[in-house]
Amino acid sequence: MNGYIRNPRLPKVLSVNHEMKRGIKASIPVVLSFIPFALLFGTQATQKDLSHLEIPLITGLNFGGGSEFAAISVWTSTPQFWLIVGISVLVNIRHVLMGAVFAPYMQHVSKRKALVLLFFMCDESWAMALADAKKRQAFSISITYYISLALCLYSTWVIFTTVGSFIGKWLGNIERFGFDMAFTAVFLVLVKGMWSGMKKNYCWAVSLLVACLVAHYVSGAWYVLAGTSVGLIAAWFGAGRNA
Amino acid sequence: MLEWSHLIIILGMAITTYLTRIIGFLLLRNRQLSPRTQFVLDNIAGCVMLSIIAPVFVSGEPATLIGLVVTIMAAIRFSLLPTVLIGVIVTGLGRYMLGA
């Protein structure tokens, strides 16, 4: 599980112990930022009648916060399989690009090992492992650093979403107190994190506008599909000037 | 504790999400995407997330709309925790005072 470095001036093999400590240490600020998201997710999911067993199952098997919040937002008493899975895929489609970027940095591990490591790839573990490799001027990520960091994030996410599910049960019906706004707040904060200016993300405004119109005039969850697709069409046609 | 219909969705999400994680690694590692495709892919998550919260913008409920405006301003300035607290408190107080 060593990360080999191709820079000849640096040691060939990284110490497992040292890399593990480094990974865990680097994860701390991100772990702290995960906790409120996780508690909130557990609380919100309980409101949609997901059980204490289903919540760690969804966060442990899926491990993608954005897609999980998105799934819960359209979850009804008779949840729609294709709607929920479809929305989850759309939110997670960025992983395809991330995996492609990761590939050349993982050439030193076997394919089977890489496929296990990729299960734990989230925005944060991906970005931090890459940033670390670039900082060390290495051509490959440090696997021990990456996996210890990723496992800290993973266990935080699963544990605290479960804790949140118990808080949710205890709070009861919280919508009337304004807790439903927490949901909107999560998405706004996530979107702000991805925002790179009107020039690059103008299509988000298009999506929001179209989704608002459809949500107002059409019943059901069509606004998600309509908003997303019109926004992406706008992105496709405007890409020539911006990409 | 575990509902059949829920389990199917959870597994569906788990499988598709894992696929998104490995497809790029397996298929695209030696290929160059066109800048246009890359631009569209980059923008999907934002388009979906903003579409999801659209109903709040057209709720027509004064307390919710006031809460929304304050939450947006908070989100621009602060991290998650303060944004959530501000959003929830302002919306809750608004509903209490406006009797919604």
Description:
The complex is a heterodimer of chains A (243) and B (100). Chain A is mainly alpha-helical and 243 residues long. Helices cover 73% and strands 0% of the residues of chain A. Chain A contains eleven helices and no strands. Chain A has helices spanning 16-47, 54-62, 65-73, 81-92, 94-102, 111-119, 123-135, 143-171, 180-194, 198-217, 222-242. The model of chain A is unreliable at 1-5 (pLDDT under 50). Chain B is mainly α and 100 residues long. In chain B, 81% of the residues lie in helices and 0% in strands. Chain B has five helices and no strands. Chain B is extended. Chain B starts with a helix and ends with a helix. The model of chain B has no long low-confidence stretch (mean pLDDT 91). The interface between A and B is large, with 97 and 72 residues.
What can be said about the biggest beta sheet of chain A?
none
Note the gap between the termini of chain B: 34 Å
Gyration radius of chain B, to the nearest Å?
20 Å
Beta-strand content estimate of chain B:
under 5%
Question: In total, how many beta strands of chain B?
Answer: 0
Q: Kindly state the mean pLDDT of chain A as a whole number? A: 88
- Weakly predicted, low-confidence segments of chain B: none
Give the overall silhouette of chain A.
Answer: globular
Rg of chain A, Cα atoms, Å: 20 Å
Give a brief outline of the structure.
With 243 residues, chain A is an all-alpha fold.
Features:
heterodimer, A: 243 residues, mainly alpha, globular, B: mainly alpha, extended
Chain-wise SSE layout:
The complex is a heterodimer of chains A (243) and B (100).
Chain A: H1 16-47, H2 54-62, H3 65-73, H4 81-92, H5 94-102, H6 111-119, H7 123-135, H8 143-171, H9 180-194, H10 198-217, H11 222-242
Chain B: H1 4-27, H2 35-52, H3 54-57, H4 62-77, H5 80-98
